[in-house]
Design brief:
With 268 residues, this protein is an alpha/beta fold. It contains nine helices and ten strands. The protein has a five-stranded parallel β-sheet with strand order 3-2-4-1-5, with helices on both faces. A five-stranded mixed β-sheet has the order 6-7-10-8-9, with helices on both faces. The N and C termini lie far apart (54 Å). The C terminus is likely disordered.
């Protein structure tokens, strides 16, 4: 019996992959990876390893969740190191908890290797701190996509709207037309700033800056699409404060050859 490692690949920039995650990729026998894992990270996989694309993009899952878990169980029967490579962090809206539970029920040894989650990294690369003494002392993370193919309003958006100054929504762009009215009805101000950040930490990163009152129209006008993280709250204004005092040509900080170009912004 081998061992399955649930490894967080981070949001895309290979510089954000943990050392432990990189080491496991380099010595893995089998790697089962999700669609959002970036190519530079996939390039780190042991050339002799078996690579299996598990899909996991909205509406385009190449494997059902049960099929993926069963595959991991089967591969652990013959391979010493099986890496389940998941975008971001396995336990942050990544179904890592479900996979770990099913693997342990089948007596397969499991270890979790956390990753940097996009809900923190994408705003950071856009110059938006989720907390700041002058803007926000609380933050909540929530999924905007609860089931494949349709929106099920099970999230208590009234409680979310009132519980924190900063709201970070994963996988919510497709359902903004349902989410935004709920937040407004719950008392969030219409001029609450919103930042949508697509392909966070990657060369293709782009931002759309709007307000709760205008964000749905701006998405329709620009064709802004997933995958994206939504950040809502006064901290979004900190980005404007930065651009007011910084040289725009030096605002992006390159890391491992990757740099976020300021001109890709669709908002400010």
């Amino acid at each position: 019996m081998g061992k399955v490692y649930l490894v967080g690949a981070g949001p895309g920039d290979p510089g954000l992959l943990t050392i432990k995650g990189k080491t496991l990729l380099e010595c893995a026998d089998v790697v089962v990876y999700d669609a959002l894992v970036s190519e530079p990270i996939l390039a780190m996989i042991n050339p002799q390893a078996e690579r299996i694309d598990a899909g996991k993009r909205r509406g385009r899952h190449s494997k059902l969740q049960a099929e993926t878990t069963q595959l991991l169980i089967e591969k652990a029967q013959t391979a010493a190191i099986v890496v389940r490579l998941k975008g971001g962090d396995p336990f942050m809206f990544g179904r890592g908890g479900e996979e770990m539970y099913d693997l342990l029920r089948s007596n397969v040894p499991v270890e979790v290797v956390p990753g940097v989650t996009a809900g923190i990294a994408a705003p950071a690369y856009a110059g938006i701190p989720l907390t700041h003494r002058d803007y926000s002392s609380s933050v909540v993370f929530v999924t905007g996509h609860e089931s494949a193919g349709k929106y099920r309003p099970q999230v208590n958006w009234r409680a979310i709207a009132q519980s924190a100054e900063t709201i970070v929504i994963y996988m919510g762009v497709h359902n903004l037309s349902q989410i935004v009215p709920d937040l407004l009805a719950a008392g969030r101000p219409a001029d609450d700033p919103v930042a949508l950040i697509r392909w966070g930490t990657r060369p293709a990163q782009a931002e759309l800056i709007a307000t709760l009152a205008t964000v749905c129209d701006r998405v329709a006008e620009t064709g802004f699409a997933a995958p994206a993280i939504a950040t809502i709250g006064p901290v979004v204004n900190f980005r404007a404060d930065l651009t007011a005092i910084a040289d725009p040509s030096r605002f992006a900080i390159p890391l491992n050859g990757w740099a976020i170009a300021p001109e890709v912004s669709l908002g400010i």
